[in-house]
Structures are given as C-alpha cells and as structure tokens.
C-alpha cells in the first residue's frame, strides 16, 4: 500500500482505509489540475521567501505543469491505495524529480491544500455556469423577440386570467436569468479570496507570503483568518449551489409550462421529434422525457444543495473529516447544472409555437379587466366598472373591445424591454469574458518562471 501523507510507518487496517478514503480517488480527479496549479504557486512562494532553493522551486513548477496538463487531458490517475489526489500528486512529483518532490508540502496542510484546489475549481465552474446562463438567456430573448406579438392566454391559478403573448412568456425567463447573472458577481466575490497559508487552521510558524500567492493566482485578497478558512468548508460550495438552485427555480417554471402547454389538451407548443422519446408499448407516444428529466434535475439540485448544507452545518469550528463528504454532492450538482443549461439552450430555439391553438384559447373573458379599465377611462370609478363587468359576464352580455387598451409600459405586451435586456446581457457577458481572461492570465503567470512576481 502506498504511504499516505500522514503515515508514520504503522500498518493500516484495510477496511478502515477503504471507509475513510471513500470515493476520493475518483472525485479528486476533478480537482487534480487545480491542485497542481495551487501547488505550483505555493512552490514559487517558497522559493521567493527562501524556504526552497531557486532550482528546487523551478524544478517543482516544471513538473507540476506537466502533471497539470496530464490531469486536464484525463491522463492523471489516483490509485485506490493512495487515499486522495494530494498523495497521488506528491507521489508523482517524488517519482519524477526525486528529493525536491518531498519538499512541496512544506508550510501547508492537506486542509488548506484542498481548500485552495476547491476554490480554484469553483472559480472555474462559476464562470462556466455563468457563460451557460448567458447563452440560455440569449435564447430566451431571441424567442421573445420572434414571438413578441403572438397572443396566448395568461394564467393565474392555472385558470385563464388576462391576455398575454409568447413574447411576454419567453421574456420572463430571460429576466430571471439576468437577475441571477447579477447575483453571480456576489458569489464570485465570496470565492475571490485565497485560503492558502491557513494550514490546519492556525497558520504556520514560517515566514510565508500569503499575499504573493493570492496575487499570483489572481485572487483580489487573502482569506485572513486561518480558522475561518476551515470554517468556510461547505460555506462557499453552498453559495455556488444556492446560486445554481436559483437558476433552477426559474427554469423549473418554464419546464412545467412547456410540459403543460405541449399537451394535447392545451396544444400551444410542440416539441421536435428529436427532443421526444417513444413508448415500448404504445406506438403513438412522443414523450417529453427531456423536459421531465430537466425538471427533475432542478429538484435534484435542491437535494444536493441540502446535502452540502447538512454535512457542513452543525459542526464546531475548525477542521473535521466530515468535510471530505462535501466533494461528491458539490461535483454532482455542478455537473448537473452545466448539463441543464446546455440542454435547454438547445431546446428553446426549436420549440414550436402553435399560434392558432393559443389564439383560440384567448376568449373574451380574458379581456374583463381591460374592459373595466375602458369604462374607467370613460369616467367610471374602478369598483363600479368592476361590478358592471361582473354583471355582464354573468348575464352573457359581455362584449369587450379587444383593441381598446394595450399595455405599453415597460415590460407590458407592447413594450417587452428587449433593448434594455440585451444591454444587460452584454454587460454580463463582458464581465464573464474579462474575468475569464484575468484568470487565464494568472494561470499563465504561475507557469512562467521568467516572471518573478505578479
């Protein structure tokens, strides 16, 4: 069995080993490139402050770059007996460069090592999720623009209520995503602090330079308190997953609507054959499995977020091994979120609007409130106009003027606010692009040994 980072030569019980290792050899593969990047920044800092010889630091960075690239390409492996990615990374360094590989762990703990790798991973994932949300929001805006004047009933309590349009309906979900994209900057700010140097939660009695590592990796600041760095395990994962749940809450409503409006009983929407599946027994069936599974993914995300919250909550301060269990639900939730955004971005543009069926459902009763407002414009008090329309509906004499009034205020059927929404979307895209470029520049700086300081 490979020696663990904490091993002191004593034999390990195989059953206990398997239980404590869990699925880390698989889960940590997602963190491996980030672990290599963070380790390279650590090696550069150790060289800068004189805790490593310059040639040792350079050798470590060069070897870590190779391991980083292998991990990105899926060629890095973690053996079950190695316990986790940290052991595998250090073992690979020792195997390839010898003695300098044994020095990489100086002035850090597995605790802040995994904190940093996770933080780097979450930064990357947040930008990817943001980019996916931008694409989906753009698809909704395009749908809203293409169907801005196509009428459909608006519903409350799942009963016909007031006139609406497919444009208003599509615009609602673009707006929801735009709001989440604004909130994403707050999530980013929570991640934008470097935990390395916290060690086991109490710092290290060595002259390390935490600010240097933070600048080198593109963080705007250091996470000052070592104890808080450990207390933050789960807090930052939950912040990201809570954001993903907010996006899912918006999308779940759209998915429910699509499921409902595409039934034969409504007939307002159609799904392309490529987005349906069949029945093993009923030849006529074209099932909306994609819509149903996507809706299920939204609820799955909430469950995974609750799992992270449950694991991280209810613990005293500082580090506890419970935190190891945060990785699997976090990775599963992020994978599910990316898949959800990708699938819906493909579905929205090909959704078939059946305008004739929707128009037939727009009967006179939808215009009850509009007719009351027409009477108000003629001088009646609203409550009197409301009662008059109610009497006309009851005795069958209600005949509204459908063209009398239109909602031309911002957001109404006659003024969806598409230019403003596209402007906000462009700003969100620009922020994501700029932030992604800044991180790419920081990563390149870590590997550039000719660049002595950030």
What would you say this structure looks like, in words?
- By secondary structure, the protein is mainly alpha-helical.
- The protein has three domains: 14-106, Orthogonal Bundle (Fumarase C, Chain B, domain 1), CATH 1.10.275.10; 111-361, Fumarase/aspartase (Central domain) (Fumarase C, Chain A, domain 2, Up-down Bundle), CATH 1.20.200; 364-395, no CATH class.
- Helices cover 59% and strands 4% of the residues.
- It has helices spanning 14-21, 24-27, 32-48, 54-72, 85-97, 110-146, 166-191, 210-216, 226-231, 235-261, 289-312, 327-347, 355-360, 368-377, 382-395, 418-447, and strands at 151-156, 159-165, 269-270, 352-353.
- The strands form two sheets. A two-stranded antiparallel ribbon has the order 1-2.
- Strand 1 (151-156) and strand 2 (159-165) form a beta hairpin.
- Helix 6 (110-146) packs parallel to helix 10 (235-261), helix 6 (110-146) packs parallel to helix 12 (327-347) and helix 10 runs antiparallel to helix 11.
- The relative contact order is 0.12.
Radius of gyration: 28 Å
- At the fold tier of CATH, the topology name of the largest domain is Fumarase C, Chain A, domain 2
Quote the average pLDDT: 94
First-last Cα distance: 40 Å
Share of helix among residues? Answer: 55-70%
The CATH homologous superfamily name of the largest domain equals Fumarase/aspartase (Central domain)
What's the total number of strands? 4
Percent of residues in beta strands:
under 5%
How many strands, what sense, and barrel or not for the largest sheet?
A: 2 strands, antiparallel
Shape-level CATH architecture of the largest domain: Up-down Bundle
Strand order of the largest sheet: 1-2
Structure annotation, total helices: 16
What is the ordering of alpha helices and beta strands? HHHHHHEEHHHHEHHEHHHH
Total domain modules:
3
Sequence stretches where pLDDT stays below 50 over 5 or more residues: none
Give the overall shape. elongated
Structural class: mainly alpha
The CATH C-level name of the largest domain is Mainly Alpha
């Amino acid at each position: 069995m490979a020696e663990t980072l904490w091993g002191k030569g004593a034999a390990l019980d195989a059953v206990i080993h398997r239980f404590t290792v869990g699925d880390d050899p698989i889960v940590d593969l997602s963190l491996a490139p980030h672990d290599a990047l963070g380790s390279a920044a650590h090696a550069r800092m150790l060289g800068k402050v004189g805790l490593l010889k310059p040639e040792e630091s350079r050798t470590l960075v060069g070897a870590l770059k190779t391991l980083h690239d292998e991990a990105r390409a899926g060629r890095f492996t973690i053996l079950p007996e190695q316990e986790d990615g940290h052991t595998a990374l250090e073992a690979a360094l020792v195997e390839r460069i010898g003695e300098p590989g044994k020095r990489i762990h100086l002035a850090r703990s597995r605790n802040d090592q995994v904190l940093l790798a996770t933080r780097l991973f979450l930064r990357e994932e947040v930008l990817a999720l943001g980019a996916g949300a931008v694409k989906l929001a753009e698809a909704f805006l395009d749908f809203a623009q293409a169907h801005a004047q196509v009428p459909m009933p608006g519903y409350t309590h799942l009963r016909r209520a007031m006139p609406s349009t497919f444009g208003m309906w599509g615009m609602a979900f673009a707006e929801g995503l735009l709001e989440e994209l604004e909130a994403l900057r707050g999530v980013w700010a929570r991640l934008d602090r470097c935990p390395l140097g916290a060690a086991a939660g109490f710092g290290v009695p060595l002259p390390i330079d935490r600010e240097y590592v933070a600048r080198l990796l593109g963080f705007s600041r250091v996470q000052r308190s070592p104890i808080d760095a450990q207390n933050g395990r789960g807090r930052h994962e939950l912040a990201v997953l809570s954001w993903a749940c907010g996006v899912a809450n918006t999308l779940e409503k759209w998915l429910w609507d699509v499921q409902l409006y595409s039934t034969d009983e409504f007939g307002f929407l159609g799904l392309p054959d490529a987005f349906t599946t069949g029945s093993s027994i009923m030849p006529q069936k074209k099932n909306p499995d994609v819509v149903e599974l996507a809706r299920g993914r939204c609820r799955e995300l909430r469950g995974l977020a609750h799992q992270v919250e449950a694991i991280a909550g209810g613990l005293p301060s500082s580090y506890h091994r419970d935190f190891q269990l945060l990785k699997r639900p976090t990775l599963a939730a992020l994978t599910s979120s990316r898949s959800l955004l990708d699938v819906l971005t493909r579905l929205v543009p090909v959704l078939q609007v059946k305008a004739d069926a929707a128009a037939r459902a727009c009967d006179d009763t939808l215009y009850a409130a509009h007719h009351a407002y027409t009477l108000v414009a003629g001088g009646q008090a609203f409550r009197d106009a409301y009662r008059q329309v109610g009497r006309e509906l009851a005795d069958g004499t209600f005949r509204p003027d459908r063209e009398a009034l239109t909602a031309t205020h911002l957001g109404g059927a006659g003024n969806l606010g598409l230019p403003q929404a596209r402007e906000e979307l462009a700003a969100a895209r620009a922020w994501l692009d700029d932030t992604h470029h800044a991180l790419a520049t920081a990563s390149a700086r870590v590997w550039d040994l000719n660049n002595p300081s950030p």
